[in-house]
Amino acid sequence: MTARSLVVCCILSLALAPAPAQAKSKAVKRLQALAQQLAGVREFLPPDEPRMEALAKAIEEVGAQDDAEAAKTLLALLRFPCKSASVEVVLSEGAADALASMESPAAHDVVRTALRKGKKDPETAASLSEIVGAWPEPASGKVLGELVRSKNPAVVIAGARGLAKLRQKEGLEDLVEAFGPWQERGGEPINAIGEALYEITGLALRSGEDWKKWWRESGKTWDPSQRKASGDGATSERPKHFQKKTPPSMFEGLPVSSKKVIIIMDVSGSMHIRQYVREEVEEAERGAREGTGTSLAGSGDRPPKLNFDPTKDGYKKKPCTFSQCPGARGTGPECPSDENLPLWFSRMKRLSRAAQRLVDAFSPDTEFQMIAFSTEARTWKGKKLVRATASNKEKAKKWLAGLQAGGFTNTMKAMELAFTIPGADTLIFVTDGAPTNPAGRPYPPERWRELLDKIKRLNKRKKWRIDVVAIAEGHTDFATSLAEENGGSYTVVD
């Protein structure tokens, strides 16, 4: 157990331990017995499995008890370890929902006290802030505002997300005061602060000075009911971002605002596939016209000179010759790769160039790491975030240019590695296929829920944003759910 984990456990134990003289209610006893019983189960259990349904019902019953004892019991379940990810996710998410539904002052005080005592710890802040944000009371805004005043970016993000859910006046001044300084620093905190201000006020002011002026002139007398509903009813259009400068993007479709980001790239065998993409030719031709030879930083490629047009009738593609391709070996379906096309058109090169452009655009205060995965997973440089100095960016681009396609799509290996790297707040996951097990066998769609639960367990205390870029066959329900369930965006690349 790390020193931080020990501190968190001590904080929660003070808040969670029931008074010795107080007898447990039947509902609490039933829930604790079920949790202990299922904690040792190793296999995946679907939500409609009888034991899981009984567990969900027991959590609801404790939530309905709505008192301090129930709140302490449910708080303990947020961090209750289980061998099965599916059980642990049901426990933690069910407990969070039950806590958020409580209405008694005693229950609210228990959770707010735990948050206040643990406010310096990012994991405590991430676990409890949105629960507290479900209770529209001045005390909730006060404790969440304390998080926004923190110097820790992860704690600030948690506090802002809680206030966005609260949508009350309390805590609003803390957001206004924090907007300017965090906009100067950039990254995910200012996005969270800006989103919270927009959710609360419906306004999309662009600078800290504008927000302070609004607060002086209108804020102190402003009432939350003045905020129009949302969407078309809002008083301003929702901004695409709240950074001082337009953030860099990946594949032109995914803005990357984070200053603490991990890029996870699928380099499995299917990334060898070469497919004609008109946009790639246009980009190369534009670079040639502008005298740059290529607009693709660090790739070393030259614009392709095609003596044929794949879009014309009668064109015949050349079958795949990749040594690892099942289709080329006659042991699988025909591969869509067209060997007439230069290497420029391979998925691997496209991903490599997109990542190089992104890295090249990182500001010096950005910290990043990269993971390439197929059957195994490996980082670019150690197991920590690396500052985006000019030297590090050149080394990173060289590493990216050397990536080769091969192997399977062991998504879990990559995710497990990513969550060992401390300090990030955003993952960018790029893939062109559904996940496989280490032996290369694709997981059937009915098992995707199991993998998603494992990833949610890895992320439940961190609440990192997971953006997903799906290339071709990577556009699956697994990929869309991965982004949706982890607060990220979803981008499809043909």
Report on this structure:
- It is a single chain.
- The protein is of the alpha/beta class and 494 residues long.
- The protein has 2 domains: 3-233, Alpha Horseshoe (Leucine-rich Repeat Variant), CATH 1.25.10; 249-273 and 346-493, 3-Layer(aba) Sandwich (Rossmann fold).
- The chain is built from 19 helices and 9 strands.
- It has helices at 3-16, 26-39, 50-65, 68-77, 85-101, 105-117, 122-132, 138-148, 153-166, 172-185, 188-201, 208-217, 278-289, 326-329, 347-361, 390-401, 411-418, 448-459, 477-484, and strands spanning 249-250, 254-255, 260-266, 367-373, 377-379, 386-387, 426-431, 465-471, 490-493.
- The strands form 2 sheets. Strands 3, 4, 5, 6, 7, 8 and 9 form a 7-stranded mixed β-sheet that branches. Strands 1-2 form a two-stranded antiparallel sheet.
- Strand 7 (426-431), helix 18 (448-459) and strand 8 form a beta-alpha-beta unit.
- It is globular, with a radius of gyration of 25 Å.
- The model is unreliable at 11-21 and 292-300 (pLDDT under 50).
